[in-house]
Specification:
The protein is an alpha/beta fold. The chain is built from 9 helices and 7 strands. The N and C termini lie far apart (38 Å). The protein is 38% helix and 18% strand. It is globular, with a radius of gyration of 16 Å.
Length: 205
């Protein structure tokens, strides 16, 4: 049943918004990765996950907000049973480590899908990244970092929409990044953000 539901979700996503992969600066590989992307729609998680080859999807967990994807039977089913999400608290209790579920998934050998902006934008630009990506890059230097630009998703399924508009979308996968020796937090986050933004500029990605 779960496998069939995955196929239906992928087929429905492709029918509604496309979302096919464009491997611009990297290729699909079983190397452990963190795919980090811009965030403009609740469809982002599904589209990026569906854009991966089937063999990689089974080893890749999207990171999703518990306060949205953890509510409601259908959302939880999609997030946990179909997508295999790692749910995180956006407002973590004082003294807790909000990255602990991500660290556990990486320790288990899984790749991750991450949206470092932390909240949805309007698609006009890539907002500044929060520090989680830097922290993960610092504590897991062997994990490859892949920037991804999700094209047109903020237009296809904007805030407040109930049904996606039939606008063609794509997931552009860029060249791998690694944290440079001695690189400071803000310098790295700015470089990572620019890598995503560049993929969204025609002729540059």
């Amino acid at each position: 049943m779960i496998a069939a539901a995955r196929l239906v979700l992928i087929a429905l996503t492709r029918f509604l918004v496309g979302g096919h992969a464009r491997w611009v600066g990297s290729e699909p590989t079983f190397e452990q990765r963190i795919y980090f992307a811009n965030h403009g729609s609740h469809l982002d998680t599904i589209v990026l996950w569906a854009a991966l080859p089937a063999a990689l999807r089974s080893k890749t967990s999207p990171v999703a907000a518990r306060d949205y994807w953890g509510k409601g039977r259908l959302r939880r089913f999609v997030a946990l049973d179909i997508l295999g999400c790692v749910l995180v608290e956006r407002q973590a209790p004082a003294g807790s480590d909000p990255l602990a579920p991500l660290t556990a998934a990486l320790a288990d050998g899984r790749s991750l899908i991450l949206f470092p902006e932390g909240t949805r934008g309007d698609g006009s630009s890539v907002m500044p990244f929060k520090s989680g990506l830097y922290n993960l890059a610092n504590t897991h230097p062997g994990v490859q970092l892949i920037p991804v630009f999700l094209d047109n998703l903020a237009r296809a399924f904007p805030k407040g929409a109930y049904v996606p508009a039939p606008i063609s979308c794509a997931a552009r996968f860029g060249a791998p990044l690694r944290l440079r020796q001695g690189e400071e937090r803000q310098a790295f986050l700015s470089r990572a953000r620019e890598a995503v933004a560049t993929l969204g500029r025609p002729g540059e990605g």
